[in-house]
């Protein structure tokens, strides 16, 4: 006798086969999947879109992010939010009334949870975010245009970044700040440092390459190669840098810089080379003692003592505190100061080249290294404090272990 469970499974398979065969036994093709194209690019999501009562549904996160909206999800109320580019949309699963910029609007079908994914009506969201939507039934293709032609939008992104560089070159601190997005994490750092840097030295930045890598709705990713050369003023190491810059549209639709990451850096002059400046022996002693005291605090894992030697206005102070706290909690390291040379002094700042060896005695895998750095020391209330550091060559002294 056939096992009942097995028989049931076979019966189901047979039923499915029968449903997909014409009377003469020829296969009947199922509906092809729906394709969604944003500005010529296919929307990719972790679940297939579907049509219900004439409304196309898509996973909310993929759609919102493609439209350049920052996504929010409240599991308690099953509420979806999207915000960006002057648009704020709130939708709730099972509720056909959505909120767009504070106004209630009715959808033909409400958002729904299917297979553990939250789906939202594509046309309702897209059109309320300012996009145009078209449907081709023959191709099962949805075409969405989010704004001006892609070439025009890429040109606007490039122009915004170039305007930022131009503001920096003419040392216009206010214009540099305006070039940053209102929510940019860079604003605090640049606010503290940019006007001060302009007052101390002149640096000419040249954009050598600028490529818009991604452009989705109100967000863009730009790959930039630029060179920075001092033309006058205090000590500086000329460099060429590769950056990955994220940009966003603000409430008015203008593009602004949101964040940036350094992908690579090349020094255009010998790192730490003597400048020929006359160095006072007292400055050499001060520099050595200040940096040695900082290294000793690191060796004792004394976060308070280390931060006492970091200038209160340093743009790297907050990051230094977080990094040291993590380092002390994760590793046991010894830091040896092998060389200290003052390269130049300009008023209340000294520029100091150091060679430091760092060795691990406990913690996850890590190589022992020798690092060359240039520190800026700044005088405050009669004491010299670490203000900024740039890192040069890192030499491995061991394999990670």
Please render the helix and strand layout as text.
Blueprint: H1 4-19, E1 35-38, E2 41-42, E3 50-52, E4 55-59, H2 60-66, E5 70-74, E6 79-84, E7 87-92, E8 97-100, E9 103-106, E10 112-114, E11 117-121, H3 122-128, E12 132-136, E13 141-145, H4 150-169, H5 173-178, H6 186-200, E14 201-216, E15 219-233, E16 239-249, E17 255-267, H7 281-299, H8 303-308, H9 317-330, E18 332-346, E19 349-362, E20 369-380, E21 383-396
Written overview of the protein:
Residues 1-29 have low confidence and may be disordered. Helix content is 27%, strand content 42%. The chain is α+β, with helices and mostly antiparallel strands. It is built from nine helices and 21 strands. The strands form five sheets. A five-stranded antiparallel β-sheet has the order 5-6-7-8-9, covered by helices on one side. Strands 2-1-13-12 form a four-stranded mixed β-sheet, covered by helices on one side. Strands 3-4-11-10 form a four-stranded antiparallel β-sheet.
Keywords:
401 residues; alpha+beta; five-stranded antiparallel β-sheet; four-stranded mixed β-sheet; 9 helices; 21 strands
